[in-house]
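Anyone else keep sequences and structure tokens together like this?

Example one:
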Amino acid sequence: MVFHVLTLFPQMVKDALSYSILKRAMDRGKIEINCIDIRDFSSGKHGQVDDAPYGGGAGMVMMAPPIYGAWLAAKALAEPDAKVVYMSPRGRMFTQRVAEEFCRRESLILLCGHYEGVDQRALDAMDADEVSVGDYVLTGGEIAAMAVIDAVARLIPGVLGKCESYQHESFSDGLLEHPQYTRPPVFLDMPVPEVLLSGHHKNIAAWRREKSLEQTAKTRPELLLPDVQFLAKGSEPGKAAEKREESAHSKRRVNMKGIITVLGNDQVGIIAKVCTYLSNEGINILDISQTIVQGYFHMMMIVDITNSMQGFEGCVEDLRLIGEDIGVQIKLQHEDIFNSMHRI
């Protein structure tokens, strides 16, 4: 995969990415970093790339012509459908799901802004996807772009030593990662949990799952389904069911309902993948059922898609792609169409 970085500080990006795993990935040809200096495309005598904002205000704005010229240079080297990603605090949040989305491409063009921002006309001309790495402001987009490159690159086969290295990390299955321990077995009178020394793989997996749920419920409860949130906090299962039923009753007046069906070989993380996507898109789960028969996984969800940010068709495509990634079939249909099909 090739990352084309449009920046005023190409050496900063090259230096920071020339170590450790990413350096080895570049040496093995798994990824390529191509830094393009926006200043090279300035028509001014002194390489000017910014000017005062129209309408007044503090700071300077990066000019459209140099950015557009740098983009044309990158576009000539990139795949025809290369996405332009502008690192911006006003963009959609960069998550593990977005990293997986970007990883499916052959190349990305990353635009690093500076000063008070970028002339909107450049973004419109490039059809840029604005992406934020958090609710804070940096002095430039280079650090954010490098975070994106790191997160996406580690998903590329062969970049990490084992595929398990990223499959078991935080967010890969919708949960935060469990605590990790290594030698020595006792440090400052704190021993390693006995279960990790037992050699009993099933018990170790169960302990790690439990700790992942506890950590997620403690610091990122929004990642969990309502049922799991209640159970992780120690409430009775019936309480969670009552809560879900109350939610379903409160949403019955909403007409934009959908039916999600998931079918495929059983594996870890199916429910987490789907539910994490629905949470990120503002889609409410009204009811859910799942069965596993002789290794085959089947799940059906009734969801409220009224507040979906992508719209119905966008969600259909996103869920289909998620299904392809994990090797299952995921379909979203309007409730009325689903009911009509089954009446027939």
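And example two:
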Amino acid sequence: MGESGTVVTHRSVYPRLARAAERPWYVLGRIGDQALFYARAIAGIPTAVRCYRVEIVRLVAEISMGAGVLAMIGGTLVVVGFLTVATGGTLAVQGYSSLGDIGIEALTGFLAAFINVRISAPVVAGIGLAATFGAGVTAQLGAMRVNQEVDALEAMAIPPLVFLVSTRIVAGMMSIAPLYAVAVILSFLASRFTTVALLGQSAGLYDHYFSTFLSPTDLLWSFVQAILMALAILLIHTYFGFYASGGPSGVGVATGDAVRTSLVVVVSVTLLISLAIYGSQGRFNLAS
């Protein structure tokens, strides 16, 4: 009783110090909760595929093309496609100008094949996925949580984690490969159009350096990177949405926290995969 009273007294006298001392334990507990949630969501994938195929098909269409008034305008495919087109064009303009300063603008095709595949397209696709489908998932699940729709699913003997989370993970994994393929192709086309049609470089010269340095292995690892980023984004956003609280304002806070976390994860995954795959070698020979 005396020790408990002393702890309460210290917490009331030094509230900031008490919160600072308790924060590491809170963070560790939060990490543990997230890890458990991720494990349960992934473990529920077989049940989702077996029992909720119609919902998965609906979610695939929603992810790719959007829903309601945003269909075909605000879907992930359109947003990611626009971002990669803009990024590919910007890369071509900056690369042609910078390389031209030292007389090697002919290597713009090499720059497009190298940067688009290894860095630009994966990062831009990850940001687009987090800003569209990821934020939408957090808002949807958060609204269902505060409106007690999740509790209603439990009352109907429908496992909410499987029905709401595992189905979205399956739909996201089914959608990311074609979405990313479109994004990479659009980035290639944007770089070529900008360099050849707008900047006046020879099409044969551009295609020669582009095809020479475009590595199938790099493309494969780029797809692996995009898939890992998509899985991380889906897990993060579903967690924050599923456990949102505090009414509409709490849903907004959860969405903001999820977007910030997923953006950090996108960059971290890019860094770690680059270090793991390419290391300090770069795995290309400019003299070839």
